[in-house]
Amino acid sequence: MLKGLETILFFCPEPLKAATWYAELLSTTVQIENPNFVTVQGPGVLLGFHPEDKKNQAGNGSTIAYWQVEDFEHALGLLQTKGANLYRGPINNQDHRNLAMLIDPFGNNIGIIEVL
């Protein structure tokens, strides 16, 4: 039934600005599909950015996509340098992997988890 994660959709006040931030982080480019939807191809997943509205506002703490990282401390520091704020963690989970949740500069949740 469910075969794999294809797209993570972020609702934000400035979709192009948010997409540009992620594109720079991932060393890729922004694709503009239409005035209300822009995308960034991430490693193994498409990131979509849509204007927030009454139904879907930027971040709400309920959904978090966790990205695998090789060097946890480097990734955490880089995200914070680029304007993300630490929200939870860092913690060491039951698999002895470091993980943390941050809030990107646009109010969306982003998680990082250390690769074993």
Number of strands: 8
Instruction: Tell me, rounded to a whole number, the average pLDDT.
Output: 88
Q: Runs with pLDDT <50, length 5+?
A: none
Helix content: 10-25%
Oligomer: single chain
The secondary structure category is alpha/beta
Enumerate the strands of the largest sheet in spatial order, edge to edge or round the barrel. 1-4-3-2
Radius of gyration: 14 Å
**Biggest sheet details:** 4 strands, mixed
Element-by-element helix/strand order: EHEEEEHEEE
First-to-last CA distance: 27 Å
How much strand? Answer: 35-45%
Tally of contiguous helical segments: 2
Give the overall shape. globular
Could you characterize the architecture of this molecule?
The longest helix has 12 residues, at 15-26. 19% of the residues lie in helices and 41% in strands. The model has no long low-confidence stretch (mean pLDDT 88). The protein is an alpha/beta fold and 116 residues long. The strands form 2 sheets. The chain has a 4-stranded mixed beta sheet, covered by helices on one side. Strands 5-8-7-6 form a 4-stranded mixed beta sheet, with helices on one face. A hairpin with a 2-residue loop joins strand 2 and strand 3. The chain contains 2 helices and 8 strands.
